[in-house]
Amino acid sequence: MAYIKAYGNKRVYPKNEPMTETTVFDMASCSKAMSTAVCAMTLIDQGKIRLQDRVDQYVPGFEGWTDEKGGKTAIRIIDLMTHTSGLPAYADANMLKEKFRFLIKSYHLFLFQENVRDYIYNSEFQQF
Question: What is the DSSP string of 37-83?
Fold first, then answer.
């Protein structure tokens, strides 16, 4: 049983529009707190990454940014997690796929080689 009711407004500018039970929201950056941060903190807790590690340790070919004087700045995991890396807010997905195509292929091969043999199906929830 569920009690479904909408409260408040889905928009207040230029005019108020009331919320409905079927209003859909773009989660956009909210997903970072719900998934990326949890995954990163799990890896940190397991000792697999550190916040001060350079991103290029894990993503070959990842480049930091270059300042006006030509100085290069390495981007660290903490910079990505706190939105202080200096990277632009948007990057063309097709350009990224092309640039990191080799990494995506090797990552899928890694997943297949390293993880499939250890997989044991179990429909019950498992605590780690």
Answer: HHHHHHHHHTTS--TTSBGGGTSTT---EE-TTS-EE--BHHHHHTT
Strands 9-11 and 17-18, bridge-based pairing: antiparallel
Structural element, H or E, at residue 9: strand 9-11
Spell out the residues 6+ positions from residue 9 whose beta carbon is closer than 8 angstroms to its own. 16, 17, 18, 19
Q: What is the pLDDT of residues 11-20, one digit of tens each?
A: 888 999 999 8
Q: What SS3 state is found at 10?
A: strand
Amino acid in the structure at residue 128 = F
CB of 21 closer than 8 Å to CB of 6: yes
Residues in the chain: 128
